User: Fold this.
Amino acid sequence: VVGLDGTGDSQDSLLSRKPILNALERIGISLKSPDILGQSIAAVWLTATLPPFAKSGQRLDITVATIGDAVSLRGGILIMAPLRGPDRLVYALGQGPISGIPKGISRVDALPEEELANLPIGSRMVASVGQVFGGAIVEREIILNLNSRARLYMNLHSPDFTTAFRLAKLINQNLGFRSARAQDAGTIEVSVPDSYLGNTVELVSFIENLEITPDHTAKVVLDERSGTVVMGGSVRISPIAISQNGLNIQVKVPTPNTQGEQGALNEGEILDASVFMLKGGADLKEIVNGFNKIGASSRDLIEVLKAVKTAGALHAELVIR
Assistant:
């Protein structure tokens, strides 16, 4: 990466100096490492995802990450570089301006501790990783002739035994008995009927347009970088007591007290500025609302949810990103 404003690799780093010297020498410019002053270049590692059925000339996004001691890639330009597969063959060529780096400081750890604690979670993104949107051009295709297939294997995005069974049953109802079979929770085996031989693409299109009701499992997704919490409506919490950074949440078993009786536990009751009480079996949405009412941060909520899952009181799959 070139064009950095003093935030690239230091002169002690040969990771970037040696390649740039070789590149200049190939165009007839002979220099030595000490002749390259400033920190305007950085050695980087490139990654990209080659999607199925990608064609020559199609553009891909590139993720760029420093591998030297550069502190920021903001404002830099990636010079032409090959992107190779595990077989060492070149599948795409990448080049272009780097973007996707948050504004602000180049190094978060340079801030005083008290300022660091008050930073929004999104501000903790590092400036040593960026994107080149549409910066790679596919040079090599992976050839796959679907129309020559007599058997297909379809994988579910979210493996589930009930969903797999429902889909196989629906395919059989539309294509004929034993056309499809669920191999496991995530794979459906489909035998191509005679009427679709040589035209498998039409068969896949037909199956894609079949409508089923997938079996939903309770799931909570935590994005620690942005502080985002996404949950389904069926997530439940067992009775538990939680304490985090001076905040207290108690989920208790409901009592048979009559309405208005002293000591009865009201749903979502706030006892003081740092204590929030819920009935046992409350859904996760009520806990999130409780955190918002007592002014807790998203970081506190994420740490609490991880602890509740570890304690076995969160009845849902926890996905952390």
In short: The chain is about 20% helix and 25% strand. Residues 25 and 31 are 8 Å apart (CA to CA). The chain has three domains: 14-138, 146-208, 219-320.
